[in-house]
Records
---
Amino acid sequence: MTEAAAFLNVAQSLSGKRWQARPCDERQAMALTQSRGLPEVVGRVLASRGVTEESCETFLNPTLKALLPDPSRFRDMDPAAERIARAIRDGEPVAVFGDYDVDGATSAALLRRFFRSLGADVRVYVPDRIKEGYGPNAAAMLRLKGEGVRLVVTVDCGVSAFAALEAAADAGLEVVVLDHHAAEPRLPPAVALVNPNRLDEDGAYRTLCAAGVTFITIVAVNRVLRQSGFYRDRAEPNLMEWLDLVALGTVCDVVPLTGLNRALVAQGLKVMARRANPGLAALSDVAGVKEKPDAYHAGYVLGPRVNAGGRVGASDLGARLLSTDDPMEAMELAQRLEAHNAERRTVEQAVLDEALERVAAEGGRETDLVFVAGQGWHPGVIGIVAARLKERYSRPACVVALEQGADGTVIGKASGRSVRGVDLGAAVIAARQEGLLIGGGGHRMAAGFTVAGDKLEPLRDFLHGRISEQMAAAPLVPTLELDGALSVGGANVGLVTMLDKLGPYGTGNAEPRFAVADARVVRADVVGANHVRCILQGNDGARLKAIAFRALDSDMGQALLTGRGTPFHLAGVLRIDRWNGSEGVQLLIDDAAPARSA
């Protein structure tokens, strides 16, 4: 097969995508297969992710001992650690100003658990998403100052909060910023600003999320305390026992699971499996997680529930859940988050339906950007809706929730999600610098902003122009990358068990996706609200369970439901299916194509 050939000759699938083989160094794949005694398909999976014979051991067994850097390598880390350590030694009132997403909640909970382990505590402040918006605001900072707080540590926010931090400085309130979002040449005033994405950093750790930055900062503070003799008459905390929070934040912020991030998640999932955090244990029980947690559970089961409080409930519920040691409080908070998550799904679907109608009505006004705005849309779900639109149209998407104030002024709060190769955060920062935004920022794959209603159209044109420039440099073709083709019988428990050892999977280490070739649909039905469940049969007579989530109203879903006996090529990921003490395999279908067109 040449590079130009479509995988299994699928040039256009039922979702309109071209299938292609994931790029792979064939010689490296063969070397890994032979040196490690691996099946050929597993060797290919490793090689396609850049794993070599030399790096294979570190990849398969990532450790913090090998990968955690000296915290002092980061700009401002030493003054940040010294200031926080001084606050601990002197018993100063400290507040943590967090974000309302999972990365912010886990970061705030990390700091609170660290302080509590030393007999201290912090005031956790999470702004109301609707009333206050994202990040530090002057009113909140001054309120904390009025409460007697001497030091504020911002987590997952702060790098673009110029006005708020200037107000804090003027009031004599000291601030340490721990952030990872894109920075500008000018930084807001602070005692210290630790951010691997500062322009004066070397970029080696630019993919860290806030939870990762916070953990490294805690390592630095702990070292300062140790060197100052703080632990002469008290036990030193075991920082590793909080890696479950770091893993959750890292997975949910969709940063690449490579290098240090991979080690943090791999080790953190082991800690999560011990169920030592009452909040995570309660949330797992409420969500029905019975098996050993992996990155999928963190990102798609636990994460959305932690997020739900910030989206449609109380913004601080996630941080409170993750930092409590009271099992009864943990269960009460977990149940509240479960209820909020159900509400979030309903609200999300309503906004998504309306957004899709608006995109359809515009008839493809833009080729490189999906940009929709609506009055009365809930700001708490627009990020998820943007992600859905990005997935559907394979291009960056921005969703704006418009609200009219008492004075008649229309303000839009927006969230955007990007695709590989397009730096949405940089485009939003450029728009702010052009005076088109009230505020905004982000990183390559996600951004948020606030815009005045009369600037909506100029902003749309500006972002489209910036994004089109990036798309022109690397034209975007909707594709689905596959790691290989399997028969129905080849999708077996042994293969999936071996592939599980290559995790954790996520951005930067994509879960292997295979095409199950020439599979006939024996049975198909609808489960849940809009999922399509199938039984597949191969030419060898072997059978395989499969499910396509949220597929009922799609061309693929309808084809599967009406295609009994029809041969398909089905692309997706394989998972162990445990039921009543037995193990099988299930295919989670991402895409499909009629085999007769191959």
---
Amino acid sequence: MVRSLRAKALLGLSGLLLTSCIVLLTLLLDQQAEVAGSVREDAVWAAYQLDRETIKLDAALSDYGAGPTPEKAAAVSLRYDLLYSRTALLRGGQLAAIIAIVPEDARSAAGIVDRIERLVPTGDSLDPATLDLAAFQSSVRQIRGLTESQLVRINARRWVELVGERERTRSLSLVLAICVVALAASMTGLIVLQVGQLRDLRRARIRQSALAGELEQALSAAETANRAKSVFLATMSHEIRTPMNGVIGMTDLLLGTSLTAEQRRYGQVIQTSAEALLTVLNDILDFSKMEAGRFELDDADLEVEPLVRDVAELFVPKAREKGVDLAVAIDPTARLTMRGDPGRLRQILVNLIGNALKFTGAGSVAVRVDVDVPGSLRFAVRDTGVGISAEGQASLFQMFSQVDGQARGQSGGTGLGLAISRRLVEMMGGRIGVDSVAGQGSTFWFTVPVRAAWAGSPTAVPGTGAGRSGMAAIPQEPAVSGLRILVADDNPVNQQVAAGMLRRDGHVVDVVGDGAGAVDAVGRGAYDLVLMDVEMPEMDGFEAARRIRRLSSPQASVPVIALTAHAMRGDEARCLEAGMSDYMPKPVSRQRLTETVRRWSRQTAPAGPQAGVPVIDRTTLDDLLETMGPDAGPLFETFLSNSAARVAAIRVCVAEGHGGRLEAELHSLSGAAGTLGLPALVAACDQLRTTLGQGAGSWPEHLVDLIDAALSDVRRILPALAPVELTQEADASALIVMDR
């Protein structure tokens, strides 16, 4: 408000200053008028001179009449000539124009000029001897009367003008004084306002600096609180999941023993309560990350059919226990490989299938996957349970919402599962909804867009018959047994849980308590699988995995499964970056552990640092093709041809122990692969370079096999990612990149 008033005052003073300048300009113009007034003084003087010459001519005539002499005659002639010359000022010029301003003066001046010119009609010089002296003198006296009258009128008018000019000058002087005072006041006001504004700006800068400091402190406090919250969540997740792993694992083992009916019922209550508590913990962690805006989706290739069937298999025991039929139907066109977050897609399906089984006492639960619209898949879970009313559906996907008969006392849970699923689906770019009638069951559905996988465009998996496209009951695959497995965990309870579950499935299990022991055990024994806890004393699981990958024996490629009580964003990525093959958060159920062991027992590819690394980086490849155009063909042909020779040279260097040459060959091959966007080949080279950096005299040849395999993958996959074709006549490594 104060600044606005000051701005208005500044504007007013500026206007006053402008007005003062205009008045000063007016005064200057008036001074020009005074200059014109000096010309008017000259006109009065000219009229006076004319009158005086008339009087002198009359006096010369009188003197000549009293006693004519040649001298007197010459004086009369001179006076006439002077009088006549005065008429030139009245006939034209500036004086004539000034006199002509007043019509009466103009007529009088014209009359005077006319009479003077008629004194001597011939225009010759005056000769007094030839004149009628009396008549001539009479005419001169008449002219004298006219000039006297003219002089009196002009004088009188001039005095009136002078009086008026004095009054105007006095008034203008007063105005000028006022303007000068106003100008001085305005300048003073401007200076005062400028000083005030400078003072205000200084105060504002001080306040701004103080506010910036406060904001910086608040930001620092908020960041500290956010970090503390993250640390708290990570700590609480670890501290809760560790004993939960013992509760759920030991309960699972307990239920596998001979128990009385009452004991089994107690054990089942413990197991159900622990699983419900785990669900609450997971929901709260997901909800807190969503509210903090730190929830992100992973981006990886996933196969739709194995993912859906794996999730459904998790619920086979529960469905069998309740006497509910569980079936899966996947349309042949929906059996494809796509890009997405397999973990979160699995979480949504687990939530929907779990809810369907929870509220279905008898009947069936069916999972179906179809193509919704081109470029989008539709997942639907239909049950024959209690159904949901229209009023309940309105608030179904809201936080902490439980509708109809789904009260906590009946079904448990936090009411976060469906709300989290809705957010996950929306983050994936899809939609989620429900079709339900109370008492007639429900169908929960969601859609996700199909994005091309890095390994190629989405491709439908051919069906194996008509029966595959219909509803099929989920078979339970027999567990794999007889594997030799190493468990590395510092917690005795977790050791007993993992070892007990694995031994029950018929595996041979060894247990160590830290990372160093795990590295030593893997180096000495031939294990089929390693279960590695992340947090252990002396050496954690990350470092242990890295050291296992650097072993010179074939055991360097043994699958290592991370077991961690952490469930925060980035934990899985850290495990994979350390060289682990898979990630399994605690608490670990027997069913999930059995499925993980079964899955990795079927793996034929060696595990290593390049596990999970794409063979080709599509972004780099697309940029390269766009930049080079047709010239990319010779580039790939040269690279693949040279790379085959380099791999052969690397194999010779490893066999003969030439470390310097081996380092140069690896550096050259890795650099070229990185430029062309081949991360798996870069990772394979880096693995051998890491082993080389340890200073050993010999290096494992199977690491060269990894490089050769990665190069073979490039030759195999590249035609599916870019418009390329293998030449038939040339070497297999030569490629032609077709012009787009």
---
Amino acid sequence: MLKFKFIPVLLIIAFSAAVCCPWATLADDSLLDQAEALRNADPSQAKRILESIDIASLNSAQANRYEYLDIYLMAFSGDFKTMLKRYQALVPGIESDILRFKVYSGMMLSYQAASNWVDGLSLASIIIEEFERSDSKATLAPYLFALAGFYAAVDEHQLSNDYLDLALQYPQTDGFKCSASLQKAHNQLKTVAIEQLSKNDFERVIELCKSSKTALYVTLAEMTYAKYLLAISETNLALQILNENEAELMNTGYIQGKLSFLQIKGDIYETVGELSSLQKIVERILTFEGREQYRTALESAYRWQSQLAAERGDFQLAYEAFLNYEELRQEQLDTAVLKQKAVQQSRFESMEKQARIELLDKENQLLKTEAELSAERIENSILAFVLLSGLFTGLMIWSYRSRRLRKRFERLANIDGLTQIYNRTAFIERAQHLLEKSHKRFIPVVLIFFDLDKFKHINDSFGHQAGDWALKKAVNTVQTVLDDNVLFARMGGEEFALLKVGLTQQEGAMFAEKMRAALENLNTLESGHSFSLTASFGVSDTTLAGYKLDTLIASADLALYQAKKRGRNQVFQYNKGALN
């Protein structure tokens, strides 16, 4: 699956160069203005300008601005942890609303880069509250862009669009309009069925970015367009666009952008079957200085390396690359779960805060009423008793609702929202427990991986609604074959896993064959389209792979790979000899 997560981070870094605010006209202010204007287009020159400034000569406001710019330029080296510490130390001494919002933008970027979703969402709440209270909304509106980028990163794309629309209600520069349109295009690729988009949507963004006269914006817009072209199978044009922009991008300091660019080219080469070109992409990514900054590209590179090595018959390298890929994929899936939990926690805290405010209002009203009734006689005490009973009842109801909400969020954190079965994180936790328990008693455990065949074709040809239908229908069909003692989970995308205690690999293969046949006989017309829905199965057990979950997963996944390689729609059992 093509991934393109770097755009929100790069846009948060990039767009600010187009947003400049008036400062004092002293010599030091002039140098700070120059550094700020160049911080994105030429960060090295911006750094030299800062170094030429005598820090001792700066007043408090200038010193804060200098510190902000010095921290900002650290983004190009990827040291977001240090950036965040310095930003947090800077905030208390800032008096200017504009500079504080700039620092907030930098902090949002740092939280995003560090995958610190909980603190990022807490800061988002602060930004929203301060913006709503401000009398200078038009001046602060551009800095909502960082908020929009962060919400896109946690897959809250509608919220991202809402804050972009809010910012665009105020006059903005061409650079901001370009950045906002590009972020919206990125959100569309994540949420809108590909057939509802058109080339014109992306060509308009490119033209808008050209008017901003910032080369980086244009390059990011072209890369987004190439991603769209790949999704609609226009690979030649996508590759042409990438080749035209490669030199421009590779001359920048954006490591994530360069790696993502290589990843998109790799996706194209994989799609068209240019294995020699794909091998070169793998080598470039795995030797790229700073590659750890963009682990999504590393994940793709190891997956390609595993497949290419298997094609050459180098099964040892294929296995090692697969383990690296599996580790990174697990990391990405864990991150997705953490995002979901952070969003749910943020929503719960917001609801809890609102409930507390409502209860305080009722409490204050009660106290006011008690004061007014203090001079009344005993008959009015009955009214006070009723009000106190009502407050107590309200507290009980709120407590009950809070407990229900917590249970609901705990369920959401463990259950896949689309298919209503366990997600990967819940599967890993429960599978490890079952394996440990079975190991003590030497009971065999079988693991079955299955993957819907040519699922991307279903999505691209019939839309995401048909794809969602296929996933849910596949799960429902498989469940008719299962008993109550099977651990069943969606591992990500169109890949699923089943773990069963007490079965051998041979018995598991017979079990998998029943599921395969049930899927093959499905009638897909109720989806509104006619297409073939089949699956490939890989089966392994603890007799061959042992009771370590990582090894068991790797062996089942290799068996699944062999099933797909041999023509799909079949069951393949893991065999250690395949690695020799």
---
Amino acid sequence: MEDQKVIYDNKTVKLFILATLVWGIVGVLVGIVIALQLRFPAFNFGLEFTTFGRVRPVHTNAIIFAFVGNAIFAGVYYSMQRLLKTRMFSDLLSKFHFWGWQLIIVLAAVTLLLGFTTSKEYAELEWPIDILIALVWVAFGVNMIGTTVIRRVQHIYAAIWWYIATFVGVAILHIVNSFELPISLFKSYSLYAGAQDAVVQWWYGHNAVAFFLTTPFLGLMYYYLPKAAERPIYSYKLSIIHFWSLIFLYMWAGPHHLLYQALPDWAQALGVTFSVMLIAPSWGGMINGLLTLRGAWDKVRDKAELKFLVVAVTAYGMSTFEGPMMSIKFVNQLTHFTDWTIAHVHIAGMAWNGGIVFGMLYWMVPKLFRTKLYSEKLANAHFWIATLGILIYAIPLYWSAITQWLMLREYTPEGFLAYPNFLETLTQILPMYTFRIIGGTMFLIGFFLMVFNLAKTMKAGSMVAQEEAYAPVLVELGARDPKKESMHRFLERRSVRFSVIAFIVLAIGGAVEIIPMTFVKSNVPTIEAVKPYTPLELAGRDLYVSEGCYNCHSQMVRPFRWETDRYGEYSKIGEFVYDHPFQWGSRRTGPDLARAGVIGGPMYKNAAWHYNHFMDPQKMNEQSIMPKYPWLAEKDIDLDIIPAKIRAMKKLGVPYPEGFDKIAVDDLKKQAAVIVADLKASGITADPGKQIIAMIAYMHKLGRDISTPAASDSANAPAKVVVESLPNTPADLTAGKEIFGKLCASCHGPEGKGLATFPNLTDDEWIHGNTPTDVVNTITNGYPVKGMLPFKNQLTEQQIKQVASFTLNGLKK
């Protein structure tokens, strides 16, 4: 039979390769910037557009969707045409896909820096961009599945199974997680609230890792590793088991991101169980990849592309073992909210995803440009620099996680937290963040070497944009003969049917978890005391989201003693029924804020403290790494949108009174006036229409509804302890000075002269008196309404007397 001429579209492949290189440099550069911000707050540059909270999502989106996304498309477009012996289904769809995806990336960067975000991990983009993503993704899927329909080979190869699963999986995830109610062009509220939103988001978040960072890369592995090694894949049967078991199990594992949190036990148990089960198919894929190199290990010594691919597959095995281990509840205590998670995702991202991309490009670009790689030595140098950079990046973060976890849960012999101030644990791990900068910089240097190497390779060669090839005409085999053809082999001839079955397999896990959480009311018990946000608090919450505060602060107190002693009562599922979206967080670079509004609680601070803290965190505590937010005191609350926000919340089921939207602005102004009066009493003059007032209102809302109001009348006041004398030995004064530095200096300054509006302790003007009895009782019982915590739950009687002695006798007068 005469062969037919096929013309491969190499131009689109080249465009995606160039985009991969450009966005890869941008993504890593932005990553180094946020690493610098965590170590040296000055790198926030004092601008609202460059704070860590806004830049961090730019980094994750640039790496995942810009760098990795374009690399996936380059690899898919190159391999599919050659595997199926046909041109892509539609040149128009290919162009729309490429330029549409680049537009999405640019819009993402601009909107995130401007503060337009939904706050959902890996899904921060607002609703117009979500719609554009859906359109571009469907175009990609139609183009891909259409190509399988017009193929000139009988069966679709294993790599294409993974490409199909990627398209179907991401489509399901993106659409379900993006259900939101728009209230303006760049503001919307999630249709889900609280625990329901958390389940949907981490079903999406976990499986975004699965179906954007894993399944397409397994497809690339199944094509480019055998090509680079010049060996067939080790086992066809293992490929089948690997594929179907992994795409089925992955969709169930999302709740392992929410262990010990306000989620029903059955959902947590499902997440743990399926996460542990994932080890088997994941390692099956790793074994299939590594055994493909049987008889070809000598090539690994000389070829950089194989080095990268081997490290990538090995890192895949390590990460897919570590992930299930992190989902075991006891281990999760350590890993969650610490740098362990950061190290884990970067081992996977830099070694697994980066390794596959680098290996693929070093093999593909010379083939595409019909020449040899410019420099094998440079490629090998890139490999060793990048690999060493990954290790220097990740190992200190593992050490950081263990150090911080041990400090957070350490108690004194008297039964008090050894490090009650979260910042004490953070300052101990900051040196590890220096290594993170070094490791990331090394990774970037290696990236630059690759860009130079590939640019020289492209210049030396010549790409044929419309490459000619020849393939025989496909002859349909007809109905399946059970004696000659297995069911799976038959499915490989029916790509559309294959895609439908993949959809069903993928949809089961999400449906089982999301539908009961959404429609079975007993899964989200309500608490009568929990009230909707006032208009001012809602405005403050939206600012909290816009500024990206969720990147550093959680709002979820887990039921561990060391968390309840430090933050307050553990979180309940019914607290979050009005939270659109939820704000539980995934990493604590700062303390948990779930109980920031509980007067008398360990996290409560008064309005003046919050005002000064937002204006200059380092003035409040010189070791703080939080950016300054002076624009909050300069920018006005958008009053025009408040009624629309109230109406949107009412549509989502928040029980505001009928017609409340018409008086919402007046309600906001009344509450703002109260906060302004409180600030004025502390010597701070503020405009009630500024954003800082809304942020303070939101801080004081957190946890307040379920707390018991602090006693304010003298009948309920604690008994006064009479102190005749204070310990005054050098050892006592030294101990008191240490305690003062840890617990008191953040408000009163290291020399006790007061910060901002907080009292000077070195003069004779004392609010509650400066006798030993007065000072000891003030330290013991605090003054919660004004933000001074009672320290009787953190310090022993002797320690309280020591810090009182240092205050009266040790501070410079």
